[in-house]
Amino acid sequence: MATLSTDGRDAEAERWRSRVRQLEADLSAAQRLRSSNLTAQNEILRLKSELAGARAELAAADLALSHLTPKAPFSGVINQRAVEEGSLVQVGTALFQLVQVDRLKARGQIPQQQVSRVRPGQSVLVDLLDGSQLSGVVSFVASAADTETRTFAVEVEVDNPDEKHVAGGSATLNIRLPEQPAVFISPAYLSLNDDGRPGVKFVDEQDRVVFQTVRLLSVTNDGAWVSGLPDDIRLITRGAGFVAEGETVIPVDQSDQRG
After folding, report:
1. pTM for this one?
2. What superfamily does domain 104-175 belong to in CATH?
3. For 88-133, what is each residue's pLDDT tens digit?
4. In CATH, what number does 183-258 get?
5. Can you list the positions of beta strands (E) in 142-253?
6. Among 4, 35, 80, 204, which one has the highest count of C-beta atoms within 10 angstroms of its own C-beta?
7. What's 215's DSSP letter?
8. Domain ranges of the chain
9. Sheet arrangement for strand 224-227
10. What percent of the chain shows pLDDT beyond 90?
Protein backbone atom coordinates (compact mmCIF):
# COMPACT_ATOMS: atom_id res chain seq x y z
CA MET A 1 0.00 0.00 0.00
CA ALA A 2 2.78 2.43 0.94
CA THR A 3 6.50 2.49 1.68
CA LEU A 4 8.36 5.16 3.62
CA SER A 5 11.65 6.55 2.31
CA THR A 6 14.71 4.74 3.66
CA ASP A 7 16.83 7.87 4.28
CA GLY A 8 19.97 5.73 4.37
CA ARG A 9 18.58 3.05 6.67
CA ASP A 10 19.14 0.34 4.06
CA ALA A 11 22.82 1.31 3.78
CA GLU A 12 23.11 1.27 7.58
CA ALA A 13 21.68 -2.25 7.70
CA GLU A 14 24.05 -3.44 4.96
CA ARG A 15 27.03 -1.90 6.79
CA TRP A 16 26.23 -3.88 9.95
CA ARG A 17 25.58 -7.01 7.90
CA SER A 18 29.09 -6.75 6.44
CA ARG A 19 30.51 -6.09 9.90
CA VAL A 20 28.86 -9.23 11.27
CA ARG A 21 30.27 -11.34 8.42
CA GLN A 22 33.75 -9.93 9.01
CA LEU A 23 33.65 -10.56 12.76
CA GLU A 24 32.34 -14.10 12.23
CA ALA A 25 35.30 -14.79 9.93
CA ASP A 26 37.77 -13.20 12.38
CA LEU A 27 36.37 -15.22 15.26
CA SER A 28 36.55 -18.46 13.29
CA ALA A 29 40.18 -17.78 12.39
CA ALA A 30 41.07 -16.82 15.98
CA GLN A 31 39.53 -20.02 17.30
CA ARG A 32 41.64 -22.07 14.89
CA LEU A 33 44.75 -20.23 16.06
CA ARG A 34 43.76 -20.72 19.66
CA SER A 35 43.67 -24.46 19.17
CA SER A 36 47.34 -24.20 18.29
CA ASN A 37 48.05 -21.75 21.14
CA LEU A 38 48.86 -19.04 18.58
CA THR A 39 46.44 -16.45 19.97
CA ALA A 40 45.29 -15.35 23.43
CA GLN A 41 41.98 -16.25 25.01
CA ASN A 42 41.32 -12.54 25.56
CA GLU A 43 41.29 -12.04 21.79
CA ILE A 44 38.59 -14.70 21.47
CA LEU A 45 36.52 -12.98 24.14
CA ARG A 46 36.97 -9.58 22.49
CA LEU A 47 35.80 -10.85 19.11
CA LYS A 48 32.78 -12.59 20.64
CA SER A 49 31.79 -9.38 22.40
CA GLU A 50 32.16 -7.30 19.24
CA LEU A 51 30.19 -9.89 17.24
CA ALA A 52 27.33 -9.85 19.76
CA GLY A 53 27.20 -6.05 19.59
CA ALA A 54 27.25 -6.06 15.77
CA ARG A 55 24.45 -8.60 15.61
CA ALA A 56 22.33 -6.42 17.95
CA GLU A 57 22.98 -3.37 15.75
CA LEU A 58 22.03 -5.37 12.64
CA ALA A 59 18.79 -6.55 14.26
CA ALA A 60 17.90 -2.96 15.15
CA ALA A 61 18.69 -1.77 11.62
CA ASP A 62 16.57 -4.56 10.04
CA LEU A 63 13.70 -3.71 12.41
CA ALA A 64 13.89 -0.05 11.41
CA LEU A 65 13.72 -1.11 7.74
CA SER A 66 10.68 -3.31 8.38
CA HIS A 67 8.88 -0.31 9.89
CA LEU A 68 9.22 1.50 6.56
CA THR A 69 6.54 -0.78 5.11
CA PRO A 70 3.38 -0.37 7.22
CA LYS A 71 1.42 -3.58 7.72
CA ALA A 72 -2.32 -3.69 8.36
CA PRO A 73 -3.43 -5.54 11.50
CA PHE A 74 -6.09 -7.39 9.49
CA SER A 75 -7.09 -8.13 5.90
CA GLY A 76 -9.48 -5.61 4.40
CA VAL A 77 -10.00 -2.93 1.77
CA ILE A 78 -8.82 0.67 1.76
CA ASN A 79 -11.77 2.95 2.43
CA GLN A 80 -9.86 6.24 2.69
CA ARG A 81 -6.30 7.44 2.01
CA ALA A 82 -4.96 10.16 4.31
CA VAL A 83 -1.53 10.75 2.70
CA GLU A 84 -0.07 11.32 -0.76
CA GLU A 85 3.33 10.46 -2.22
CA GLY A 86 5.89 12.74 -0.64
CA SER A 87 3.82 13.50 2.47
CA LEU A 88 5.78 13.99 5.68
CA VAL A 89 4.70 11.51 8.36
CA GLN A 90 5.72 10.72 11.90
CA VAL A 91 4.83 8.21 14.60
CA GLY A 92 1.05 8.19 15.00
CA THR A 93 0.24 9.68 11.58
CA ALA A 94 -2.84 8.04 10.03
CA LEU A 95 -2.10 6.65 6.58
CA PHE A 96 -5.21 4.76 5.52
CA GLN A 97 -8.64 3.84 6.77
CA LEU A 98 -8.96 0.09 6.40
CA VAL A 99 -12.31 -1.71 6.50
CA GLN A 100 -12.74 -5.43 7.11
CA VAL A 101 -15.83 -6.06 4.99
CA ASP A 102 -16.11 -9.83 5.25
CA ARG A 103 -16.47 -9.68 9.05
CA LEU A 104 -18.49 -6.81 10.50
CA LYS A 105 -19.52 -5.68 13.96
CA ALA A 106 -23.09 -4.52 14.53
CA ARG A 107 -24.09 -2.50 17.60
CA GLY A 108 -27.57 -2.11 19.03
CA GLN A 109 -29.60 -1.59 22.19
CA ILE A 110 -31.63 -4.12 24.19
CA PRO A 111 -34.63 -3.11 26.34
CA GLN A 112 -34.05 -3.76 30.01
CA GLN A 113 -37.03 -6.16 30.04
CA GLN A 114 -35.20 -8.44 27.60
CA VAL A 115 -31.53 -8.13 28.53
CA SER A 116 -31.53 -11.06 30.96
CA ARG A 117 -32.43 -13.38 28.08
CA VAL A 118 -29.54 -12.33 25.83
CA ARG A 119 -26.17 -14.05 26.11
CA PRO A 120 -22.96 -14.09 24.03
CA GLY A 121 -23.10 -16.89 21.48
CA GLN A 122 -26.77 -16.54 20.59
CA SER A 123 -27.64 -16.52 16.89
CA VAL A 124 -28.69 -13.28 15.22
CA LEU A 125 -30.33 -12.49 11.88
CA VAL A 126 -29.38 -9.05 10.57
CA ASP A 127 -32.03 -7.45 8.33
CA LEU A 128 -30.46 -4.99 5.88
CA LEU A 129 -32.30 -2.06 4.34
CA ASP A 130 -32.28 -3.70 0.89
CA GLY A 131 -34.28 -6.64 2.28
CA SER A 132 -31.40 -9.12 2.41
CA GLN A 133 -30.13 -10.81 5.56
CA LEU A 134 -26.80 -11.65 7.14
CA SER A 135 -26.04 -14.07 9.96
CA GLY A 136 -24.25 -13.19 13.15
CA VAL A 137 -23.53 -14.12 16.75
CA VAL A 138 -23.87 -12.03 19.91
CA SER A 139 -20.35 -11.20 21.11
CA PHE A 140 -20.99 -8.71 23.93
CA VAL A 141 -23.82 -7.60 26.24
CA ALA A 142 -23.33 -4.58 28.50
CA SER A 143 -23.55 -5.14 32.23
CA ALA A 144 -25.02 -1.69 32.94
CA ALA A 145 -27.79 0.26 31.23
CA ASP A 146 -27.31 3.57 29.44
CA THR A 147 -28.15 6.33 31.90
CA GLU A 148 -30.34 8.16 29.38
CA THR A 149 -32.13 5.42 27.42
CA ARG A 150 -32.10 2.70 30.13
CA THR A 151 -31.19 0.20 27.42
CA PHE A 152 -28.24 -2.18 27.29
CA ALA A 153 -25.62 -2.11 24.54
CA VAL A 154 -25.14 -5.28 22.52
CA GLU A 155 -22.52 -6.15 19.90
CA VAL A 156 -22.87 -8.78 17.19
CA GLU A 157 -20.15 -10.32 15.01
CA VAL A 158 -21.64 -10.49 11.51
CA ASP A 159 -20.45 -12.68 8.62
CA ASN A 160 -20.47 -10.88 5.26
CA PRO A 161 -19.06 -13.50 2.86
CA ASP A 162 -20.23 -11.63 -0.27
CA GLU A 163 -18.60 -8.42 1.00
CA LYS A 164 -21.75 -6.35 0.63
CA HIS A 165 -21.32 -2.60 0.97
CA VAL A 166 -23.09 -2.28 4.32
CA ALA A 167 -20.30 -1.20 6.70
CA GLY A 168 -21.43 1.89 8.62
CA GLY A 169 -25.06 1.47 7.54
CA SER A 170 -28.26 0.74 9.45
CA ALA A 171 -29.80 -2.67 10.08
CA THR A 172 -32.23 -4.47 12.35
CA LEU A 173 -30.87 -7.12 14.73
CA ASN A 174 -33.12 -10.11 15.36
CA ILE A 175 -31.67 -12.07 18.26
CA ARG A 176 -32.90 -15.61 18.64
CA LEU A 177 -34.04 -15.89 22.25
CA PRO A 178 -34.66 -19.10 24.18
CA GLU A 179 -38.26 -20.26 23.87
CA GLN A 180 -40.49 -19.80 26.89
CA PRO A 181 -44.25 -19.96 27.60
CA ALA A 182 -45.97 -16.64 26.95
CA VAL A 183 -49.48 -15.19 26.94
CA PHE A 184 -50.83 -12.38 24.75
CA ILE A 185 -53.00 -9.99 26.76
CA SER A 186 -54.39 -6.49 26.46
CA PRO A 187 -52.08 -3.77 27.82
CA ALA A 188 -55.10 -2.55 29.79
CA TYR A 189 -54.77 -5.59 32.07
CA LEU A 190 -51.29 -4.53 33.19
CA SER A 191 -50.58 -2.47 36.29
CA LEU A 192 -47.68 -1.78 38.63
CA ASN A 193 -47.23 -2.94 42.22
CA ASP A 194 -45.75 -0.82 45.00
CA ASP A 195 -42.24 -1.75 43.84
CA GLY A 196 -42.96 -0.55 40.32
CA ARG A 197 -42.95 -4.04 38.82
CA PRO A 198 -45.51 -4.85 36.09
CA GLY A 199 -48.14 -7.48 36.64
CA VAL A 200 -51.81 -8.41 36.46
CA LYS A 201 -54.52 -8.97 39.01
CA PHE A 202 -56.48 -12.21 39.14
CA VAL A 203 -58.93 -14.00 41.43
CA ASP A 204 -57.84 -17.14 43.28
CA GLU A 205 -59.95 -20.11 44.34
CA GLN A 206 -61.16 -18.22 47.43
CA ASP A 207 -62.23 -15.27 45.25
CA ARG A 208 -59.47 -13.08 46.65
CA VAL A 209 -57.57 -10.58 44.53
CA VAL A 210 -53.97 -11.57 43.85
CA PHE A 211 -51.31 -9.49 42.10
CA GLN A 212 -49.02 -11.57 39.90
CA THR A 213 -45.82 -10.01 38.54
CA VAL A 214 -45.00 -10.79 34.91
CA ARG A 215 -42.08 -10.38 32.55
CA LEU A 216 -42.84 -8.15 29.58
CA LEU A 217 -41.51 -9.80 26.44
CA SER A 218 -42.87 -7.27 23.96
CA VAL A 219 -45.51 -4.54 23.98
CA THR A 220 -47.46 -3.09 21.05
CA ASN A 221 -50.63 -1.04 20.67
CA ASP A 222 -52.59 -4.26 20.12
CA GLY A 223 -51.34 -6.16 23.14
CA ALA A 224 -48.45 -7.45 25.18
CA TRP A 225 -46.64 -10.77 25.28
CA VAL A 226 -45.91 -11.65 28.90
CA SER A 227 -44.49 -14.63 30.75
CA GLY A 228 -44.82 -15.75 34.34
CA LEU A 229 -48.54 -16.53 34.42
CA PRO A 230 -49.92 -19.95 35.37
CA ASP A 231 -51.73 -22.01 32.74
CA ASP A 232 -55.11 -21.65 34.48
CA ILE A 233 -55.91 -18.16 35.73
CA ARG A 234 -58.97 -15.96 36.23
CA LEU A 235 -57.75 -12.55 35.09
CA ILE A 236 -59.52 -9.43 36.24
CA THR A 237 -60.28 -7.68 32.96
CA ARG A 238 -62.54 -4.92 34.29
CA GLY A 239 -62.35 -2.89 37.45
CA ALA A 240 -58.85 -4.04 38.43
CA GLY A 241 -58.02 -0.50 39.48
CA PHE A 242 -60.84 -0.48 42.02
CA VAL A 243 -59.84 -3.58 43.98
CA ALA A 244 -56.82 -4.17 46.22
CA GLU A 245 -54.71 -7.27 46.66
CA GLY A 246 -56.19 -9.59 49.27
CA GLU A 247 -59.68 -8.18 48.88
CA THR A 248 -62.52 -10.68 48.47
CA VAL A 249 -64.66 -10.04 45.40
CA ILE A 250 -67.60 -11.56 43.57
CA PRO A 251 -66.18 -12.45 40.15
CA VAL A 252 -68.40 -12.31 37.08
CA ASP A 253 -67.38 -14.47 34.14
CA GLN A 254 -67.42 -12.75 30.76
CA SER A 255 -69.54 -15.54 29.32
CA ASP A 256 -72.15 -14.82 32.00
CA GLN A 257 -72.21 -11.16 31.01
CA ARG A 258 -72.85 -12.05 27.39
CA GLY A 259 -75.80 -14.05 28.66
Report:
1. 0.52
2. Efflux pump adaptor protein, beta barrel domain (2.40.30.170)
3. 777 778 888 788 888 999 999 998 878 888 999 999 999 999 999 9
4. 2.40.420.20
5. 151-159, 171-175, 183-185, 191-192, 198-203, 209-213, 215-219, 224-227
6. 4
7. E
8. 9-66, 71-100, 104-175, 183-258
9. 183-185, 224-227, 215-219
10. 41
